[in-house]
Amino acid sequence: MRVLGIETSCDETGVAIYDTESGLLGHALFSQVDLHADYGGVVPELASRDHVRKLLPLVRQVMRKTDTRPADLDGIAYTAGPGLVGALMVGACAGRALAYGWGIPAVAIHHMEGHLLAPMLEENPPAFPFVALLVSGGHTQLVDVRGLGDYELMGESLDDAAGEAFDKAAKMLDLDYPGGPRLAALAEKGDPSRFTFPRPMTDRPGLDFSFSGLKTYTLTTVREHALADGLPDEQTCADIAAAFQEAVVDTLVIKCRRAIRASGHKTLVIAGGVSANKLLRERLETVLAKDGARVYYPRHEFCTDNGAMIAYAGCLRLQAGEHADLKIEVRPRWPMTEL
Ligand code: ATP
Ligand code: MG
Ligand code: FE
């Protein structure tokens, strides 16, 4: 089975073709980061318009590169939610229409299920059941994954997502959007022991998170050490970045360990943009190894949004007999537990 995947839920246009026999045949991504940089965040209307411009050329490019004709395809998968409504509409309309025109089924994919399955595109894929930590720009969730579509939410952030906290802390340190990876790079030059940031909600039982307090803590620390230009000196900025990253990573690791113990599973999958974080990966591997558990994550480029994870999820959903009807529907808010 060969499936074309389309991702347009936020600020990246992603297209890929996955084949159940040969694996990932090809993929292409256009990131709108430069388009939104001046605004310090994603501007929904600009995002939708740019998806309109980039999507079909990317589809053509991937079809050509992988030597795929429409007749070779068994289906088209598109992200139907959660995400920005206008951005989702572009991918859903295009995906649904192409599938209709080419006489093949379409399938609507949940963006977070895409993230969750992304590690399965790697050479040594994880097997069900496992605990998934979904850490991205919009989500921080621990999910008990028993099989495709069998998801139980174990815990989630009650306020900001971890990626959002990274981006906001980065902004306070005057780093460009999206700040997460930039803050992580700055942290490498910092001393993580100079400041000690709180580990929110780790002093009580439970698997929920809260990252908004860390944001305030960061702001207060930045202000306390600010020089005339409003920013601390370079080394202090790096030390703050390191303390912030340390606190987020430590908090995530504590909760992942708890979740693994509570579930009885021996596999942890991390996915979503923040799963690209080097310190998070290293710490999780070391700590969970003590419990005999293994950690799986996607290759770097598939941690953030991409078409490959949607094409792959599409294959699994189509193989399970699912497909979308002709009505084009998107769900900007869509709990994964409803799958
Ligand atoms: P969602 O998937 O929840 O809808 P999204 O699609 O915007 O949100 P992703 O594209 O999966 O999120 O991830 C982007 C987020 O990942 C951003 O917040 C970004 O700062 C963060 N991020 C990326 N790389 C790193 C890193 N190395 N360290 C920390 N954060 C990172
Ligand atoms: Mg993104
Ligand atoms: Fe995402």
TrEMBL record:
Entry keyword set: Acyltransferase, Cytoplasm, Iron, Metal-binding, Transferase, tRNA processing
Keyword Membrane: no
One protein family per Pfam: TsaD
Residues at which Fe cation binds: 111, 115, 305
Cofactor(s) required, per the database record: Fe(2+)
Entries under InterPro entries matching the protein: ATPase_NBD, Gcp-like_dom, KAE1/TsaD, Peptidase_M22_CS, TsaD
Alphabetical GO biological process terms: tRNA threonylcarbamoyladenosine modification
Binding residue positions for substrate: 134-138, 167, 180, 277
Residues in Gcp-like domain copies: 24-312
Gene Ontology MF terms in the entry: iron ion binding; tRNA N(6)-L-threonylcarbamoyladenine synthase activity
Catalytic activities: L-threonylcarbamoyladenylate + adenosine(37) in tRNA = N(6)-L-threonylcarbamoyladenosine(37) in tRNA + AMP + H(+)
Subcellular location: Cytoplasm
Co-factor remark: Binds 1 Fe(2+) ion per subunit.
Chief location: cytoplasm
EC number: 2.3.1.234
GO CC terms in record: cytoplasm
PANTHER family linked: TRNA N6-ADENOSINE THREONYLCARBAMOYLTRANSFERASE, TRNA N6-ADENOSINE THREONYLCARBAMOYLTRANSFERASE, MITOCHONDRIAL
Known function: Required for the formation of a threonylcarbamoyl group on adenosine at position 37 (t(6)A37) in tRNAs that read codons beginning with adenine. Is involved in the transfer of the threonylcarbamoyl moiety of threonylcarbamoyl-AMP (TC-AMP) to the N6 group of A37, together with TsaE and TsaB. TsaD likely plays a direct catalytic role in this reaction.
Family: Belongs to the KAE1 / TsaD family.
NCBIfam families from the UniProt entry: gcp_kae1, T6A_TsaD_YgjD
Protein name: tRNA N6-adenosine threonylcarbamoyltransferase
Provenance organism: Microbulbifer marinus
